[in-house]
Amino acid sequence: MDSRLEAEDYALAWICALPVELTAAIAVLDEINPRLPQDELDHNAYEFGRIGSHNIIIACLLVGVYNLTSTANVAYHLRRSFPLITATLMVGIAGGVPTLLRKDIKLGDVVVGEPIPGCRGVLQYDFGKTIQAGRFI
């Protein structure tokens, strides 16, 4: 561990939705780094580490609060404490996106969202279920 690391040494952040995802994220770190100070208004809990040559900050959503507002709050406070972060990834087990028109995305598939005109690159498909005739409610 290098105790000389500072906030400026981190450009990547990883946000997890679930504690089990946080456990997995910590397990893939090559090295765990010492904690760094954060903004007094930032109540996120962070893990600091290294994967290869990249220092990374890992944060997790509050247990039981899995929505866009919670995710936005974690990302906002992360940037408040660590303004030099250039890339933030939301990594987790997620779910699937069934469709009748094209190939389904199944649990376990790797999906990368890329913004294009008219689409933010992320499909929110939660808090519902598929019923008869493939209709989602």
Automatic annotation (TrEMBL):
Name of the protein described by the UniProt record: Nucleoside phosphorylase domain-containing protein
Species the sequence originates in: Dactylellina haptotyla (strain CBS 200.50) (Nematode-trapping fungus)
Alphabetized GO MF terms: catalytic activity
Alphabetically ordered keywords of this record: Membrane, Transmembrane, Transmembrane helix
PANTHER family: AAA+ ATPASE DOMAIN-CONTAINING PROTEIN-RELATED, ATP/GTP-BINDING PROTEIN-RELATED
UniProt entry tagged with the keyword Oxidoreductase: no
Positions of transmembrane segments: 12-30, 51-69, 81-101
UniProt GO BP: nucleoside metabolic process
Listed InterPro entries: NLR-like, Nucleoside_phosphorylase_sf
Presence of the UniProt keyword Lipid biosynthesis in the record: no
